[in-house]
Amino acid sequence: MLPPVMGSLYGYDAVNVESQSRDPHSLLNWTRKMLTVRRGKQAFGRGTIRFLRPNNRKIRAYLREVEGETPILCVANLSRALQAVELNLSEYAGSVPLEMTADSAFPPIGQLTYLLTFPPYGFLWFQLCPGNQRPAWSQAPSEQLPEFVTMVIRAGQTGPTPENVRLLESEVLPSYLSKRRWFASKDKKLIGVRLAILTTIPKAGFAFTEIEADVGDHVERYVLPLTIAWGTETTSPLYMQLALARVRQVRNIGHITDAFAVPNFTYGVLKKLLQWAIVPTVQKSEIRFIPTERLDQLASKLKLGEPPPEIRWLAAEQSNSSLVIGDQVVLKLVRRLVGGIHPETEMSRHLTKLGFQNTGPLFGEVVRVDPEGVPHTLCILQGFIDNHGDAWNYALDYLRRTVDELALATDTDDHSMDREKEMLGIKGYRKVTGIIGQRLGELHVALALPSDDPAFMPEKESKKDVRGWNDGTHALPVTALDILAAKLLEFSEHDRAMAQSLLDHRDLLLAAVQKLVPENADALRIRIHGDFHLGQVLMAQGNAFLTDFEGEPARPLDERRKKSSPLRDVAGLLRSLSYASAAAQPTTGNAPQATADRKRALFERLRGHGEEAFLLEYRAAVAASAQPIAGDEATQAAMKRQTVRPGSGCRCVASRRWRAACLAIRVHRPPPARDPWTPHLRTPADGNEYE
Q1: Cβ atoms within 10 A of the Cβ of 67, count?
Q2: Please, which residues have CB within 8 angstroms of residue 644's CB and are 6 or more apart in sequence?
Q3: Which has the least CB within 10 A, 176, 275, 443, 523?
């Protein structure tokens, strides 16, 4: 008897359980995945159903809801043609639709109708998650002030009157500051705001303004460039979002706004840099526009005449504000003003001079120098790196995609193809982390070169330095354990048991940390990145570029400029790889137990291989240094330091900051006696295979 279906396309020898199990995109594996997703949510089986009524009747949309779970939105196109639909989801305004089959976040829901498009017979299942789970690429809109104060400007007036200043300080700036993301002390009571410095930049159309915010125990100073735009002078979408007040001059109505949102600010800064301009202030300071020799070459590319280069705003509402000019340079407006040499410009200038290729070169900076000669950096102009995104999101996407494909169950006893796919997935992740290790090693080699600048001259680490390193390391788990104890009741039963176990062994943990590095460790102190993690690395064309040499913003400027062990950067990246593995794993919760266990094991293997490849490539790169960057004893000590480190338990806390500190300590078994840099790679007779 012949088989019911024959042929090379759909015959039994082409379509069977074994072949379908091997193909992650097969109908069998698609069905398995959909069943897994459905079993993971009670709302599909026991929840209420509420139908929506879109105007497009070819679309079926409904909500499944059950107490204790986030609502699920199901939308399906019943037509054989492409369709678009607008859904009224205003009751869920602020929520983020998370597509359930791929864990892809869609743009947040607003008060207007929500637009979706579908291929023929396409469908989507969404979890309507809280607004704090916005996608990484999404920028939350700035809060616009509910009502603008009106300021009157007389004809011929060239600066603010005392009445204008009083209005700004008492009614405008306090409410404006509290809504800005770059204002660091939102959790403190704002006592008062003072307009400290206002300097009009001639023929540039804006003024550099510095404001002082009194938050009780200290005063913070911020940069807020201001401009007045009349009528329809600007088309920037940030214009109204960043507006402070309404202004009226006779019959003309305009707005005073953050000049960062107006193109004239960018063009004005560029022109003043090309002119080497120096603008005096009424407080006997000077605003200096200091270009590097590269800026003249850049000016010809940007063509500052007509039409002017395109401006693309990147982040108006972060700790700093950044925009891209003509896909050539990035202009960063430094919001928090601190006296002293800024480590970002100092490091960028030094690396540009050395010819280090894997970071954005420095093209110039804008600095206010006070009467005592202390610089205060206002703006930084650096080269733009066309990239695919930062390494944090790259790693998350790679881990989730690879594990989802590798975790598919098979119904055969032959797992050779599974091992081959796993090896390919591991090889890809090793390539990503390896190139980061190589670039970090090259950075440290460059920074270890002898220099005429004392700030960059390498030094041997003293016993005092090692003691300071140990004390600083000891303070981190103390803080983490204190936070852990305070948040203990917020954890699930399983995580609470893990946390309590760590708290019970608090003294042993702290004693072990204190003894990590011997005082006679042979190591070099150089300038380092200082805040190195996956988010500080840009991925582009299979390469890695290192960015943001500002250091940890919470630390004083002098501390960020101090020389330290390069292994601090190594440890920071290792922790970041561990965080990435933990952050990618919540998706395992929806899977059956066997699949979830397999996924967790795969995540752990990928993490281990990623860390190993990073260390191998880093060591290979620093081997080119004329003087050893770290002796064997210091290297071993740095590896021991990783035996007490942040772990995956903190994913139960919603905030990423808490997640990095709360349940963050886990103790690994003692490391093997082998060299920590030795790879886990072996080469059997029948080919290469990862352990």
Answers
A1: 9
A2: 477, 509, 512, 513, 665, 666, 667
A3: 275
Tokens of 27: 């109908």
- Residue ranges of the chain with per-residue pLDDT less than 50: 145, 410-412, 639, 641-691
| Residues facing residue 540 across a β-bridge | 543
Strand 123-129 and strand 375-383: the pairing is: unpaired
Q: Are 81 and 120 in contact (CB under 8 A)?
A: yes
Among residues 552, 561, 555, 517, the alpha carbon closest in space to that of 532 is found at: 552
Report DSSP letters for 647-680, one per residue: -GGGGGSSSHHHHTTTT--EEPPPPPSS-TTS--
pLDDT score, position 634: 56
Terminal alpha carbon distance of the chain: 47
**Which amino acid would we find at residue 660?**
A
- Using DSSP bridges, classify how beta strands 311-315 and 459-460 pair: parallel, antiparallel or unpaired: unpaired
Q: State the pLDDT at residue 279.
A: 94
pTM (two decimals) = 0.77
CA angle, 95 then 98 then 104, to 5°: 135
Strands 252-258 and 286-291: unpaired
Q: What is the pLDDT of residues 519-542, one digit of tens each?
A: 555 678 899 998 999 999 999 988
Q: Could you count the other beta carbons within 10 Å of the beta carbon of residue 684?
A: 7
Cα separation, 150 vs 170, in Å, equals: 13
Only one residue has tokens 């395109």, namely: 310
* Contact (CB, 8 A) for 364 and 342: no
Is-cis flag, bond preceding 307, omega within 30? Answer: yes
- Residue 621 CA to residue 624 CA, distance in Å, equals 6
Cα(71)–Cα(66) distance, integer angstroms: 7
Rounded CA-CA distance 215/192 in Å is 7
pLDDT given for residue 647 in this prediction: 36
> Which tokens in the block code for residue 456?
């960059």
The pLDDT value given to residue 429: 95
Identify any residues that bridge with 200 across adjacent strands, giving them in sequence order. Answer: 207
Amino acid at 79: S
C-alpha span between 410 and 346 (Å, rounded): 56
